[in-house]
Design brief:
Strand content: over 45%
Organism: Paenimyroides baculatum
Oligomer: single chain
Low-confidence stretches: 1-19, 261-265
Number of domains: 2
Largest sheet: 9 strands, antiparallel
Number of helices: 0
CATH topology of the largest domain: Jelly Rolls
CATH class of the largest domain: Mainly Beta
Shape: elongated
Order of helices and strands: EEEEEEEEEEEEEEEEEEEEEEEE
Radius of gyration: 21 Å
Mean pLDDT: 84
Keywords: Signal
Pfam family, one: Por_Secre_tail
Structural class: mainly beta
Protein name: T9SS type A sorting domain-containing protein
Helix content: under 10%
């Protein structure tokens, strides 16, 4: 399933120096022993660093490897199955590390954004007829996908994933990162750093690919009952007869209070957007002397419904009396970066 929804804001986000960040997982694999990550493929007996690995059909221990890489130190390598997965023959390979300390429910108060980041090597598998893909997914305890990324090794196509409300029904959709509602294709033989953030307070998913100057937010389904229980890496083979490795490094999971949205650390908590829900006039103010340059308003289909320029003012207003009832995303461009706010029009 895919959707023509795309990230309508393109900017370079810095995600460093996050205030009040609570580290849940922080892995660079450098203190691991070269060789097999685990000696169990049932997902029940922890291996190195308490990692769990699972292959339902077939599989072997070397499918999950700690390897030395010249420029990165140790890295994690997961190899896709040689046998294509089907509904009755699930040969997919999974690796994950459980969240510590009781998981997401025991995070620090107010840290309501789950942030996942990692680096992966795009590789050089561009063989015709070999259709393999790798994923990093955050899911609920019953396996429902909340958000994540998918990389296709044959073409280099890279997509986001989350659930959207389509005609009133929640449905898992691919998020396209290319311009003009197109796919993004990454260069081969390149290390790429990516992030996604799940904002439980505002029902948003942020996707970021700094090397491509791509970032933005997508309104997702209500997340109230979709608590993250598992964050896993997975490799799948859909077509072909060769194993395709994928390498990962610098894998981090954290709970944060707010998303940092520019190199100058403009935070969503610096701004007040009210009233929300709104009938007509929305006030946008801040006490940090951050100057507003432009505001764009998008509907849930990423259609631009309003653009308004401002002469570097810290307190501004926009009129949404013309808009239909529903949920909208406000993209606020300032002299220090861009931030996002979700509002509801009565």
């Amino acid at each position: 399933m895919k959707t023509k929804l795309f990230l309508s804001s393109l900017l370079l986000l810095s995600l460093t120096n996050l205030t009040n960040a609570q580290s849940l997982i922080d892995e660079n694999f450098d203190n691991y022993t070269i060789g097999n990550l685990s000696s169990d493929l049932s997902g029940s007996v922890p291996g190195q660093g308490n990692w769990l690995t699972e292959v339902q059909i077939g599989g072997k221990f070397p499918d999950f490897q700690i390897k030395s890489e010249n420029t990165k130190g140790n890295i994690l390598q997961i190899t896709t199955p040689i046998t294509p997965s089907t509904q009755t023959n699930n040969s997919a390979k999974f690796a994950w590390k459980n969240l510590p300390g009781g998981g997401w429910q025991n995070r620090n108060s107010g840290n309501d954004i789950l942030r996942v980041e990692f680096e992966f090597y795009t590789g050089n598998s561009r063989g015709v007829g070999v259709e393999a893909y790798h994923r990093n997914i955050t899911s609920t305890a019953n396996g429902t996908i909340i958000a994540g990324f998918q990389y296709e090794t044959e073409t280099g196509r890279f997509r986001g994933m989350t659930r959207l409300i389509i005609q009133g029904v929640p449905d898992l959709k691919f998020i396209l990162f290319g311009s003009n509602q197109t796919d993004l294709y990454l260069k081969p033989d390149t290390w790429v750093k990516v992030y996604y953030q799940i904002d439980y307070a505002n029902d948003l998913v942020y996707f970021q690919i700094p090397s491509e100057n791509i970032a933005g937010s997508v309104p997702t389904v209500s997340l109230k009952n979709d608590q993250p229980a598992q964050i896993y890496f997975a490799g799948y083979m859909l077509q072909g007869n060769m194993e395709v490795p994928m390498q990962y490094d610098n894998y981090k999971v954290s709970a944060v209070k707010s998303a940092s949205l520019s190199t100058n650390e403009v935070s969503t908590t610096d701004f007040n957007v009210y009233p929300n829900p709104v009938d007509d006039i929305i006030n946008i103010t801040n006490n940090e002397n951050v100057l507003v340059e432009k505001i764009d308003v998008y509907d849930t289909n990423s259609r631009l419904i309003l653009t308004k320029n401002f002469d570097n003012k810290s307190n501004v207003q926009i009129d949404l009396s013309f808009a239909k009832s529903g949920i909208y995303m406000i993209h606020i461009k300032t002299d220090q970066g861009i931030l996002f706010k979700k509002i509801m029009k009565k």
